[in-house]
Amino acid sequence: MTYIQIDSLDLIFAALLVLVNAGLSLALQLGLARRLLIATARMVVQLSLVGLVLTTLFSIASPLWTALAALFMVAFAGREVVARQEGGFPSLWSYGIGTGAMLMAASLVTVLALTTQVQPDPWYDPRYAIPLLGMVLGNTMTGVSLGLHALTTGARRRRAAIEAQIALGRDRQQALLPVTREALKSALMPIVNSMSATGLVSLPGMMTGQILAGVDPAEAVKYQILIMFMIAGGTGLGAVVAVLAAVYRLTDHRHRLRLDRLHLDHLNAAN
Question: What is the pLDDT of residue 264?
Fold first, then answer.
């Protein structure tokens, strides 16, 4: 199995495409040139550091360091969930719900794949565990953030209908069921669209990387199908846990709707 190495000059040449985009932004007065260049620099630095960290992790192959790296990834993903919420729960609650749901879903799906399908030796081998967790976690993060945002937005929009259902004797699950369904649809739609387009419209990054590295395309396809199943499972499980937990946070033990637990500035604007 052979692969074509890429040197620094190759990367510099490819970076010219980003500079072209920055030039277009300046010419069209889009105001994105500075942000684009900063994002590019961050990406290069972050990936370079990740490469060094992964090289060390792969050489150590320690279950403790692998677990710590996984927890760091989940913790950072929780921060991203908070950053994507507008008018949602305060940061602490948003972080707790999102991180807890992602930790449970992504770790469960990843461990299941490592111990039953991939089966590296040892099963926690970071060469397999970290990339698999990263792919599942990234998509689960998107699903959880979309689900939480759709739930809180829908609850504010349908406040009168929800409170009317509660006044008629419905419990919180029944009163918030339409909003819950909308939130879960929003959370799962990206992975549904991705699976529908994979193969005919797009070749996923992992599959493309394996093919470029010399892996037989048939084997690369098998791995990609496994990854898509893992992503779908993790996204669905994480979104359900996060949305249901948020439903309980949006209500109290008397089944009253508690929109006061969301950011007050957005509530005042809605009223």
Answer: 55
